[in-house]
């Protein structure tokens, strides 16, 4: 596709930057040797597969976590945000059981990219917290969480981080024995949730694989420990003199959901060339708790108890193509191309009547070309381009119809010296936004992101990682042109066409260690923003809603992350414990006030054991109180502690394996509220829940 927004002058600028940073580097450091010739320690795998050359994060100045298939199945919730929400540095934008998106290092929305095999999820989840991510966790083989400098290879919109998932849509290998089957059924007590998943892969011809997948979820209103409304409900959500409605008790109304995900994929897998494609459909119909209350403000005398329930009915149909060539032409050892087309739409319903409709058609392509090693240096160059046609119609439209053209060039190189490993990457982006209803209104921007990192080994077991980055992010159509009521956040949002590129500089220090009986890492980071873009209250109201406008300020994000594990017993039943924690502090430097909805400090401890066919785990998750809040916008959030436990029993027969599992969540039935959620004063997290299920593999 022609990327019309990249002009010749801009390309010259990009080329110059690419040439200057083409000496950039990052490395492979050898993993520490195991003692006694036996691997005694098994933490979750940490690695990056950026451009089809794979290297361990032992040698990278980046915080990267890979959640493999086994952990994904154990952690799987109804949404991606809740599934990953307790990984170090990751929380959730919880908007009820039907919609939840990852929040990384305090960043959300447009600063966190949710990708599928390197391409955007192509839904509308980054524009509003009540819009669901069109990815079902049971469809995933892996989720890679990338924080820090390496995330910048995915663009300025990944300044907070990246969640890049590997789905089961396109077969990536030929099935052993000519066929493979997976099945999963489970039942959860918190919302009477019924879930079923099935995947079948067959080999009809030599070098060909065909795969079909299906997931179905259905749940009622979720049970909560007590009152839905917090003690700060009236302060945050009601106007002076407005009478509070009775708080729901034990059950969160309008929190049910019905989700279906189907896919069919085919691949030709050969030694030198592998190509596959898949078609998929994701459907979800879910209630949005408390959404209806925002409609009262046009008529303050209306009986809010008669408000209709608001639901979202969404569908996404997606076509994907993936191809990889080995040794495609002289000078390059691999070429990977991926493209996708998505047709996404959702309707916001009141009593079954569509009040607002959103339509988003998008096309995206990404190419990565790994060149042959130049001495001990390795690297890849790539491009990414997309076209998005967006339109919304109805009562609550606050963003105009737009057509967005986007293009990017990027390069990443790694180089290993005797006592020092170096990595760097650079990315140039250009974007043009056309307002479809105003032919003369156009906006063109370009930006550059660059990172540099060093890895310094200390003996066989310790590594010090140092990283630095400089990033520019172009403003989105919402930040530029929003104008209207946004019921999900109960605000009247206004954009600002004069907003300029957002700029930031970041630094990261990570110390990691790997021994035969224990392994861990601690990360310190800081990001300083010039012209940080966020919504700020103006002090005025319209239609009974407070007016929030996108503004630019200087801002600073600082934080720490911890991930340590020990093998307590390696002989006989294997026992290990894992300690995780994170903390982020974000401040508007212009006004010296906190940035809103920043997660509190958290700590988690998990003890687990494998004993033959049995395995079990017990974990405690504690979130400290968050009392650092933006005045008149958010209230403090009390601390809470969640107790979870799980047990599995595996039975193997011939070429089949059956896994019975029982998992308990929030066993103490404690009221817990997510500070990063817009609904924290009206929608606590689910109460005590038991999940029982059976997984079958052949």
Question: Which SSEs are present, and which pair or pack?
Answer:
Layout (H helix, E strand, L loop, with lengths): L7 H13 L26 E3 L4 E3 L6 E5 L1 H7 L4 H5 L5 E3 L9 E3 L7 E5 L2 E2 L19 E8 L13 E7 L11 E10 L4 E10 L5 E12 L3 E5 L5 H5 L11 E3 L5 E13 L3 E15 L22 E20 L2 E19 L2 E22 L2 E18 L7 E15 L4 E15 L6 E17 L3 E12 L3 H5 L1 E4 L4 E4 L7 E13 L3 E25 L2 E25 L4 E15 L4 E2 L7 E10 L2 E10 L16 E14 L2 E10 L23 E9 L1
Parallel strand pairs: 6-9, 26-29
Antiparallel strand pairs: 1-2, 3-8, 4-5, 6-7, 8-9, 10-11, 10-36, 11-12, 12-15, 13-14, 15-16, 16-17, 17-18, 18-19, 19-20, 20-21, 21-22, 22-23, 23-24, 24-27, 25-26, 27-28, 28-29, 29-30, 30-31, 30-32, 32-33, 33-34, 34-35, 35-36
Describe this entry's structure for a reader.
The chain has 698 residues and is mainly β. The strands form five sheets. The chain has a 22-stranded antiparallel beta barrel. The longest helix is centred in the first third of the chain and has 13 residues, at 8-20. The two termini are 42 Å apart. Mean pLDDT is 85; it is low at 1-61 and 292-306.
């Amino acid at each position: 596709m022609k990327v019309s927004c990249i002009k010749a002058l801009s390309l010259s600028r990009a080329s110059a930057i690419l040439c200057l940073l083409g000496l950039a580097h990052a490395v492979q450091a050898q993993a520490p040797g195991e003692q006694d010739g036996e691997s005694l320690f098994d933490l979750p795998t940490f690695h990056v597969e950026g451009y089809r050359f794979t290297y361990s994060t032992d040698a990278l100045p980046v915080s990267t976590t890979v959640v493999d298939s086994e952990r994904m199945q154990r952690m799987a919730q109804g949404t991606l945000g809740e599934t990953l929400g307790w990984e170090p540095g990751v929380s959730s934008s919880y908007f009820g059981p039907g919609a939840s998106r990852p929040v990384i290092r305090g960043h959300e929305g447009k600063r966190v990219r949710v990708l599928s095999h390197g391409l955007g999820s192509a839904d509308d989840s980054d524009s509003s917290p009540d819009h669901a991510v069109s990815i079902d966790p049971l469809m995933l083989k892996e989720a890679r969480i990338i924080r820090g400098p390496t995330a910048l290879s995915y663009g300025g919109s990944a300044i907070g981080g990246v969640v890049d998932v590997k789905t089961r849509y396109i077969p990536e290998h030929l099935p052993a024995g000519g066929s493979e089957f997976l099945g999963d059924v489970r039942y959860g007590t918190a919302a009477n949730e019924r879930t079923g998943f099935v995947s079948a892969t067959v080999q009809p011809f030599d070098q060909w694989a065909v795969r079909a997948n299906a997931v179905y979820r259905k749940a009622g209103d979720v049970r909560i420990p007590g009152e839905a409304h917090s003690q700060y409900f009236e302060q945050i959500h009601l106007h002076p003199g407005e009478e509070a409605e009775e708080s729901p008790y034990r059950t969160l109304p309008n929190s049910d959901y019905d989700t279906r995900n189907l896919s069919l994929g085919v691949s030709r897998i050969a030694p030198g060339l592998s190509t596959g494609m898949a078609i998929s459909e994701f459907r979800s119909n879910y209630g949005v708790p408390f959404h209806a209350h925002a409609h009262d403000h046009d008529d303050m005398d209306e009986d809010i108890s008669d408000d209709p329930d608001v639901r979202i009915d969404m569908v996404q149909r997606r076509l994907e193509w993936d191809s990889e060539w080995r040794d495609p032409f002289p000078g390059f050892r691999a070429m990977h191309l991926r493209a996708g087309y998505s047709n996404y739409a959702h309707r916001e319903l009141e009593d079954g009547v569509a009040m607002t409709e959103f339509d988003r058609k998008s096309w995206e392509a990404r190419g990565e070309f790994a060149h042959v090693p130049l001495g001990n240096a390795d690297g890849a160059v790539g491009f990414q381009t997309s076209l998005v046609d967006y339109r919304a119609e109805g009562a609550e439209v606050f963003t105009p119809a737009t057509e967005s053209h986007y293009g990017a060039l990027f390069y990443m190189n790694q180089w290993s010296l005797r006592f020092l490993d170096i990595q760097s990457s650079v990315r140039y982006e250009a974007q043009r936004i056309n307002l479809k209803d105003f032919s003369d209104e156009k906006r063109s921007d370009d930006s550059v992101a660059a990172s540099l990192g060093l890895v310094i080994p200390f003996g066989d077991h310790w590594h010090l990682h140092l990283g630095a980055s400089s990033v520019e992010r172009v403003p989105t159509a919402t930040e530029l042109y929003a104008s209207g009521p946004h019921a999900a956040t109960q605000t009247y949002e206004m954009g600002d066409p004069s907003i300029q590129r957002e700029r930031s500089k970041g630094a990261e220090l990570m110390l990691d260690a790997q021994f035969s009986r224990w392994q861990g890492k601690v990360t310190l980071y800081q990001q300083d923003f010039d012209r940080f873009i966020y919504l700020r209250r103006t002090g005025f109201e319209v239609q009974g809603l407070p007016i929030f406008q996108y503004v630019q300020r200087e801002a600073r994000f600082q934080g720490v992350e911890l991930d340590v594990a020990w093998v307590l017993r390696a002989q006989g039943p294997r026992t290990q414990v894992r300690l995780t924690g994170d903390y982020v502090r974000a401040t508007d430097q212009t006004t010296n006030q906190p940035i809103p909805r920043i997660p509190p400090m958290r700590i988690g401890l998990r003890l687990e054991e494998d004993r033959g066919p049995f395995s079990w785990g017990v974990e405690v998750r504690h979130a400290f109180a968050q009392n650092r809040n933006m005045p008149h916008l958010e209230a403090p959030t009390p601390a809470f502690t969640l107790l979870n436990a799980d047990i599995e029993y595996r039975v193997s027969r011939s070429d089949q394996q059956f896994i019975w599992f029982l998992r308990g969540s929030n066993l103490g039935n404690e009221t817990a509220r997510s500070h990063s959620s817009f609904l924290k004063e009206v929608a606590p997290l689910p109460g005590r829940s038991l999940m029982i299920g059976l997984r079958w593999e052949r």
